[in-house]
Amino acid sequence: MTDIAARARCSVSTVSRALRGDARISAAARDRVVQAAEALGYHWDREASRLMANFRAKATGRPVAQETIALVHAKPRSYEREDTMGFWTALTRAAAELGLRVDEVALNSRPEALGKSGRRVSQVLKARGIRGLVLFPFYEPDIRPWELDWDAFAMVAVGSSPDQPNIDRVDLSDYEDALMCLRQVTARGYRRIGLTSSEESERHTSGIFVAAYYYFAEVHPAVEACPVLRLTGRNREGMTRADRESFENWFRKYKPQAILTSHHIIRDWLADMGVHAPNDVGLVTLWPHKDWAGIEFESARLMQPALVHLRAKLWSNKLGLSGTASRVLIRSPWREGSTLNPPANTAFY
Hints:
The chain is an alpha/beta fold. The protein folds into 2 domains: 43-167 and 306-312 and 318-329, Rossmann fold (3-Layer(aba) Sandwich), CATH 3.40.50; 174-295, Rossmann fold (3-Layer(aba) Sandwich). The protein has 12 helices and 13 strands. The protein has helices spanning 2-8, 12-19, 27-39, 46-60, 87-97, 111-127, 174-186, 199-205, 208-219, 241-254, 266-272, 300-315, and strands spanning 67-73, 100-106, 132-136, 154-158, 169-172, 192-197, 224-225, 229-230, 258-261, 282-285, 293-295, 327-330, 334-335. The strands form 2 sheets. Strands 6, 7, 8, 9, 10, 11 and 13 form a 7-stranded mixed β-sheet that branches. It is elongated. The chain starts with a helix and ends in a 14-residue tail after the last strand. 37% of the residues are buried. The mean pLDDT is 84.
């Protein structure tokens, strides 16, 4: 590594971090290191790396890792440093239980640099002998522009990505979760129910929440469905004045008794209209938020089965894209909250 550091004009520690795909190393520095390593004919010795990792683990009393896998994503900031949903913690804990070690690799998220970054990351990972990838396509409906060397790795994606290549994935069971929310709402006596959505959200989930909403209304004649309101933003991000006006007009016209949504800002909009939850309208979240009633989310429920599946692929040396990709769906638990009334005494069928 000393020779690589000299050629790349950086420290040995920078070389080590760059070859590990550390997100703290800039793309330019990583490129210099990889180019220097290739020019010198450097190849990562997986067995030596494993022995060194085991030595450090035994010295510190930590579990011995059997193999290193990589978390690859195109998020602008590192999960390791800022992880509000607990993805990183859940992933590393599940990996430790399965005898795996996780390195985080962030691609250059700029669209014009994404493909080059993916190709370069593939070279780094192969040079290090890393065969297993966990892909985070959250909020990235199409991960094909990542241009990873898909044939070189065993892969599992966590989260929805309908346009992705044929990669096995573990995801939330959005359809069943939406039906659960609708059953909870109707069990409390609400009958005229609304849903807010967005084109981006529907592309990301293949319109699964809308499908569940209309199906539930069709098979429960006592339920009155309102036309789905499609807003611009996804949750709070990207909301516009026009979104607010559309919501206010929609609410005044259809007067829903309860609303299923992931646009949590509508609670503030309703309050400005003099409408408050749960006394005037029930609110149910399709993505966990503070004290709202609705879907609960636990990162561990996704990460543990994802890594079990990935480890099985590594053991059987199943690399590359799947001919027919498998999908493991995880149902979310219900969470009571301050935005919805307690269940009524009467059952609803």
